[in-house]
Amino acid sequence: MGRTRTYNWEDPAILAEAAGRMAGIDFLRELHAGQLPGPPISYTLDFALDEVEPGRAVFSLTPGEEHYNPIGSVHGGIFATLLDSAAGCAVQSTLPQGMAYTSLDLTVKFLRRITVDTGTVRAIGTVVSQGRQTALAQAQLVDAKDRLLAHATSSCMLFPVPPARQ
Ligand SMILES: CC(C)(COP(=O)(O)OP(=O)(O)OC[C@H]1O[C@@H](n2cnc3c(N)ncnc32)[C@H](O)[C@@H]1OP(=O)(O)O)[C@@H](O)C(=O)NCCC(=O)NCCSC(=O)Cc1ccccc1
Asked: Which residues form a coiled coil (predicted)?
């Protein structure tokens, strides 16, 4: 008998509209407090924003079988999703109202495999450098013993919120 999993999510337009009219840190704090619905990807993969402060964001995930690749460990894309989220939200946490961002790239180093036995993992993102048009962020994926599981750097593009989203 195969395993099954069901989940619900909220209309992503609610979140996108809020992101367009709020300062990054206020948006992320409301997300963290549950005053805004999580993004659909957080329900799909079952991970959450744990901490946020200006220039730093932390996400956590407890690995399950549903995250596995065909070779018996957590798929690299799960690592990358957590690292992209942490690095991107670290940048977002510094943006004033009216500014938006998107990640331009993500360079990931997979240092240790993750399995269901690894336990909860945390992706800690911080801003390394911020300019007018781009920001450089990095993120570390660690286990409960703070062992480094993966590392990523990401460049983000900064731009005014498009009029349609304001
Ligand atoms: C193994 C290596 C790549 C290289 O390690 P090195 O630089 O030589 O360093 P070191 O030897 O110090 O090892 C470090 C730790 O690793 C442990 N360990 C070593 N060998 C094995 C082993 N054979 N099996 C189990 N564990 C092994 C080793 O005991 C140590 O742990 P410890 O300190 O004792 O507790 C390591 O960096 C790694 O596992 N990275 C994560 C890669 C990863 O998870 N990628 C994403 C998933 S792939 C994917 O999804 C793509 C895909 C998609 C679709 C379909 C198919 C595929």
From this structure: none
Mean pLDDT of the 29-41 span:
97
113 lines ligand 1 (CB under 6 A): yes
Q: What is the ipTM metric for this complex? A: 0.88
Q: Which of 61, 67, 73, 113 to mutate to test the pocket of ligand 1 (most atoms within 8 A of CB)?
A: 113
- Ligand 1 atom nearest residue 79's Cα: 46
Which three-class secondary structure state does DSSP give residue 160?
strand
> What sections of 33-110 are H helices per DSSP?
40-45, 76-92
Per-residue model confidence as pLDDT tens digits over 133-164: 999 999 999 999 999 999 999 999 999 998 87
**Are 82 and 61 spatial neighbours (Cβ–Cβ below 8 Å)?**
yes
Instruction: Say whether 88 sits in a helix, a strand or coil.
Output: helix
Ligand 1 near 76 CB (within 6 A) = yes
At position 133, the amino acid (one-letter code) is Q
Are residues 138 and 92 in contact, defined by beta-carbon separation less than 8 angstroms? no
Contacts for 56 with CB less than 8 Å, ≥ 6 apart: 90, 93, 124, 125, 126, 127
C-alpha count within 13 angstroms, C-beta hemisphere, residue 65: 4
Question: What letter would DSSP give residue 145?
Answer: T
